[in-house]
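> forwarded from #structure-qc
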């Protein structure tokens, strides 16, 4: 059941209408929009067995700063969520506001 919910979240995030790229003066260089970054981080959470895509919330500002909030079952889960966010293309920084509940 939890896997099905994660799959639905991923599908929903990927089919949401959004602008994928915002063009710079150089057509080769592009920036991902905040919505796309948020969707990519959530999709990576949903694919990971350690991180709860439903309990950890993701918000991204226009400069690529990702704020993680919500709850994690362990410090390892919170750390993995931060690692996933930091390694996502377009993320410039991560603010970790995840609360670990044990």
């Amino acid at each position: 059941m939890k896997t099905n919910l994660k799959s639905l979240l991923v599908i929903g995030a990927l089919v949401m209408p959004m602008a994928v790229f915002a063009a710079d003066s150089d057509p080769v260089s592009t920036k991902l929009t905040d919505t796309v970054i948020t969707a990519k981080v959530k999709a990576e959470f949903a694919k990971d067995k350690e991180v709860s895509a439903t309990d950890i919330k993701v918000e991204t500002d226009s400069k690529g700063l990702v704020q993680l909030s919500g709850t994690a079952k362990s410090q390892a889960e919170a750390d993995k969520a931060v690692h996933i966010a930091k390694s996502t293309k377009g993320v410039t920084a991560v603010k970790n506001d995840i609360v670990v509940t044990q």
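QC bot note: The chain has three helices and five strands. The longest strand covers residues 65-72.
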